Every structure is written in C-alpha cells, then in structure tokens.
C-alpha cells in the first residue's frame, strides 16, 4: 500500500504590501532615535527660523510677530554691513580651511603610513584631546596666550624677537589662528581614515614600477585620499563660517564675523525676524560657496587627470595595452 508524498511547502514571499501590514521591523525601530533627533533638533528649528524670517519686530518689548508676512527682512538684511561682514567671514573661512588642509595632509600621511602602528592610538587620542574640553574654554585659553601681558609676549620680548608688547589679540590674525586650532582635528581625522584605508599595496606597487616618493604621493596617495580631503574641507568650512565664539573672544571689532552679526540680532537687538533672515541668507550663501568651490575642484581635477594622461603618453609613446 503506497501513499502519495505531500508536495513541499514554500514560505510565502514577502511583498511590500505584506510588509506594510506587518508594521515596523526591529531594524527600522532601531533607526527611530536618529530620525527623531534629526526632526526635533534640525528640521523643526530650521522651520522655525524660516517662519520667523517672514515676520517683523512689532515693538520694543516683543521680539517677533508673524501676523503680517513679507520679505522685507531679507531686503533689510542685505545691507552693506552684512555683505562686508560676509566677505570677511568668507576670507577667514577659505584661508582657515586651506591652512588646515596644508597642515593635515602631511600629518595624516605620517600618522597613517610612517608612524609605528602601536603608537597610532596614542597619536589619535592626542588629536582628539581638544574635543574633551569645552569650545569656549579652549578659545579663552588662546586669549590668555595671545594677551599683551601673557607669557608668550614676555618670552618673545626676552628673546629680542619683538620690541614691545605682543599686539595680536583682537585682530583678524588672532581669529584666523583660533579657527585653525579649533577645527584642525576635523580635517585630520577624515584624511587619516582615507589614507589608512588605501593600504600599502598600491604604494608598494608604484615604487616597484619605478616611481619615487613624491610621484607616488601625487599619483597614488592623494587621488585615493580625495574623498577624505573633500569631507575634511566640508567639515571645517561649514561650521567655521557660522562660528561666532572665536570671533567674539579673539577678534573684537577687527575680527568681526557673520555669526556675531546674526547672534547680536537675537541676543542684543531682540529682533528675531531680522536675525532669522540673516541666518537663512547665511545658509544660502554658504551652500552657494560650497557649490562654487566644488565646481572649481571638479575642473581642477579634470585638468590634473588630463595632465597625467599626457605625462603617461610621453613616457609610453606606443601606448599601454
């Protein structure tokens, strides 16, 4: 007596509609805190700033009102003071980013390639040490260092390097020094990660093919580190453009930055509508500057690639297969 074997059963295929009926999965639930943080601490405040920018200051005792919406605050914000301060901030931001890049490239290369691996955790910890201290406290420390009656001024006078007191504090140079110090680790870390991930194999292959160290750096290491360079420039340039603590502590009247102008409308003038309009304009200008610099970087990258191809054609006239 024989019995028919039961046909094999297969699990029903999960369709998007079935997944929607099933509800939120565990992995999706784990991402909820991130989305909640972005919504409540970025989207909502940004929406409030944008909403306030269409209002006005009704009287001396109220900071804002939105019963009448207009673009008048944007017109009011675009005055000569705002434009001049923005150009000064842009200069400090570009110069500060370039200085951070010039310091970080050789340091990150040394950290990822030359330094003994057993000492790298200690070196990375030393890079991160400034972040263990409050941003304001670090900046106040530079105010003490650059003081005309500080120990640096006394040491330079004793060595005969300067004749009088050190006259750096409350200048644009002091602000430049402060922003480079405060944002330098944000350039070093992504560069280190990019160079470290490249690994030694390609550098060794370049050396085996006869390239010297400088040529390997230019043709192998830096192209592989390009994502880290781009990330570091963005991490430094964008927060630097909105920084007002460094300018307030070290700059005084000569080192004014756009962040101070925006903060003064909220804290001193109590004109939230005008301050919000300035903040929105600042974000738009920063986005435009990033887009322009990104386009310039792409053009330079295209020219560099073309120059490398021409160089290879000169060295290998018959072409490479």
Backbone shape:
globular
**Mean pLDDT, all residues:** 84
**Structural class, please?**
mainly alpha
Rg over CA atoms? 28 Å
Share of β-strand residues: under 5%
Order of helices and strands: HHHHHHHHHHHHHHH
CATH architecture: Orthogonal Bundle
| CATH homologous superfamily designation | MetI-like
How many structural domains in the coordinates? 1
Describe the structure.
With 321 residues, the chain is an all-alpha fold. The protein has a single domain, classed as Orthogonal Bundle (MetI-like fold), CATH 1.10.3720.10. Helices cover 71% and strands 0% of the residues. The chain is built from 15 helices and no strands. The termini are far apart.
């Amino acid at each position: 007596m024989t019995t028919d074997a039961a046909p094999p059963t297969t699990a029903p295929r999960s369709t998007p509609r079935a997944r929607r009926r099933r509800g939120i999965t565990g992995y999706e639930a784990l991402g909820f805190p991130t989305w909640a943080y972005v919504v409540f601490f970025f989207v909502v405040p940004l929406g409030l700033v944008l909403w306030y920018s269409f209002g006005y200051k009704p009287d001396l005792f109220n900071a804002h009102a939105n019963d009448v919406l207009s673009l008048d605050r944007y017109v009011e914000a675009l005055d000569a003071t705002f434009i001049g301060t923005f150009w000064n901030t842009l200069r400090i931001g570009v110069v500060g980013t370039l200085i951070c890049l010039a310091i970080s490239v050789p340091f990150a290369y040394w950290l990822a390639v030359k330094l003994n691996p057993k000492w790298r955790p200690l070196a990375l910890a030393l890079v991160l040490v400034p972040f263990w201290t409050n941003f304001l406290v670090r900046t106040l420390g530079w105010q003490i260092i650059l003081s005309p009656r500080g120990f640096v001024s006394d040491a330079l006078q004793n060595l005969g390097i300067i004749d009088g007191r050190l006259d750096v504090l409350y200048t644009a140079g002091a602000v430049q020094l402060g922003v480079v110090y405060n944002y330098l680790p944000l350039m070093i870390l992504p560069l280190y990660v990019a160079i470290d991930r490249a690994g030694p194999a390609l550098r060794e292959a370049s050396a085996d093919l006869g390239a010297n160290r400088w040529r390997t750096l230019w043709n192998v290491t830096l192209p592989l580190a390009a994502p880290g360079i781009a990330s570091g420039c963005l991490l430094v340039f964008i927060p630097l453009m909105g920084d007002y603590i460094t300018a307030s502590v070290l700059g005084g009247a000569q080192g004014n930055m756009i962040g101070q102008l925006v903060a003064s409308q909220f804290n001193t003038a109590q004109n939230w509508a005008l301050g919000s309009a300035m903040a929105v304009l600042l974000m738009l200008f920063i986005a435009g500057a990033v887009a322009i610099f990104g386009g310039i970087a792409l053009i330079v990258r295209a020219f560099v690639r073309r120059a490398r191809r021409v160089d290879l054609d000169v060295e290998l006239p018959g072409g490479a297969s």
